[in-house]
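Hey everyone, long-time lurker, first post.

I ran two proteins through the pipeline my lab uses and got sequence/structure pairs for each. Pasting them in order. The first:
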Amino acid sequence: MSVKLAHSTRKKILHEKERIDLACAFRWTARMNMHEATANHLSLAVNQDGTKFLINPKKHFSRINASDLLMLDVNNPPDMNDPLSPDVTAWGLHGSIHRNCPHARCVMHAHPIYSTVLASLEDSNMPPIDQNTATFYKRYVIDENYGGLALEEEGERCSALLSDPDMKVMIMGNHGVLVIGSDVADTFNRLYYFERAAETYIKALWTHKPLKTLSDAIAEKTAVELENYPDSSMIFFDELKAILDEEEPSYRL
């Protein structure tokens, strides 16, 4: 039986669309080389108050299917001795954010190269030097107090930095990047464009020439226009799913 036929005939599973979308995001995070071995995590709240969420098991992003995703509850800590338990840092960081930041419906934490280089600079601010960098103008927070692995204490500290719903990117100093959003498409779009913006900025620094920075007014205008650009993140994500449907349809299983 083909993967597509199996998908069409199997019994519908709970939160199937959410699982498929998140599995797609894992596959593309790997395809775009934004993954790191079996580390890093993407999660998605599935109930109204955000206390129940899907997250990846200890498995390479390129192999994650919809049915692999774990369902966790912020009010019911998992047994970390269970071989099917999530990674301890997955619970520490994502559990804390879903517990304390209900506006963070989807949370993606990764160590992509250019975002991590940015996070490793003495000044991790990203000036608006092009359209992509302007997207994030005054829309990120910088964590200046890295405290080690994202266990629960570190997760609680990080979640406090995301209390403002307008701050949808956290540049995790000496660590990586974390983005939040309303759904998988919105959040993956933000992760993708932040890494692109960081790459542009870091490579501009490599030239050792003066940067041509946009004015505050134009940077803010651009950011607002992009925020209101119709359906851009969904169109992008639907295309990513369409490519996987042709090339790696097993992500839906």
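...and the second, right after it:
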Amino acid sequence: MSVFLGIDIGTSGTKTLAIDAAGRILASATQTYPLHHPKPLWSEQDPDDWWKATIATVRRAVEAAKLKPADVKAIGLSGQMHGSVFLDKNNKVIRRAILWNDQRTAAECAEIERRAGGRAALIRMVANPASTGFTAPKILWLRNHEPKNFEKTKKVLLPKDEIRRRLTGEFATEVSDASGMLLLDVSQRAWSADLLSKLDLDSALLARCYESEEVTGKLTSIAAAELGLSTDCLVVGGAGDCAAGAVGNGIVTKGVLSTSLGTSGVVFVHSDEMKLDPEGRVHTFCHAVRGKWHMMGVNLSAGGSLQWFRNALCETASADAKKKKVDVYGILDSEAAAAPCGSDGLFFLPYLSGERTPHADPDARGCFIGLTLSHGRGHLVRSILEGVTYSMRDSLSIFESLEVPIKRIRASGGGARSPLWRQIQADCFGYKVATINSEEGAAYGVALLAAVGAGEYKNIAEACGATIRVVGETAPNRAAKKVYDAGFPIYQQLYRSLKSDFKAIARL
């Protein structure tokens, strides 16, 4: 029996998924862990928590699927992008990892652009401008603010690659995740010697870079024993969670775009050629498909905005849901569906963690704008769903302006389970929004990459073609589309109107 595992090191928890050679899901397991915020807008995690969750979820998935150790032929790794794990000469973690949604590095982003010779020069080198979420600014922050820790640092790894190190003993990464470090020459799919030199960073800090389906090592005897697997088990490159989720949704050919609504919101489109946004509003990264690229826009608080609303303002609804033994999100969804399209003029700016696309503004703040006495909880919830969707339309409109071909859209992530949110996407974007037979996203995508790496499929396009199919479509409503077409420019103007106020608020 040939089984392949996909392990996704997420922000809220780790998921392990087991599939067979035909792509059928045999078992899955998830384990959560804490997120630390030592200061406002800081975000950190302990890599030991990821490792403990990896061991626990692999063991539970293997047990649930009734697998023998030798059944698992290969593992694919995915994980939250951009995070930084700092290791000393003994491979010990020096401090908690700084995560993708951490906003402490605005000064370091400015330093990177200055050292690179300006924003345009930086984009030419690494295809992207400096963003507070990326890894390179975190390395410079450590050098500037924790110099003793920086002096100890011998390697900087991404979250999934720290798990790889513990699995295989190898320092390795792959091109899709490495693209988000702001240190990769994306066009050449190799580390940028030019930028590393300008930043006075040693390339020895970085891991060897592979393509996503390439084998990067095998399980060590210690790791195999802890996981209950064989030392013959391969570990492939895998992918950053965005590219992995796209693979899991079959976004591996031209013309297909995905929207993913998890903690963050991602709009992701495959490209056969490397395309750049000269203004740097969207990211251009290497895809998990060998020799291909993708463009991506990111909202930092998509599902996270709805989760915040539930936690902060819905104690009554949560108690009611508990009594009825139903999901509180189902109650909120029903209330939002009862509110009219456009939320009676109520707008929500989903900038609770600052914002990435298209503004790259760590000082941006979340807002409800247009509140009146006639608005109820349903209006508030619906405006959150609409505000996040407007944010994603920002990215879609940039792709369209760059003439990136878009023929169809596939929705994924927790938010895509809501029929209302899928309908809002279809109405706001003006495209049919499809769902597929798997909702497992990133873990499923890297399990397929593991199958390719083990020789089960010729390439990832073949693997996706054999395992992924569309199971539903949501068509846009013309009347609703007119409402959103009228609301979208207002939504865009609200950020421009408030930008200077956000800066003033941040200085308080």
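Reply from user beta_strand_b:
Welcome! Quick read of the second one: The chain has a mean pLDDT of 95. The chain has two domains: 3-249+441-468, 303-401+472-502.
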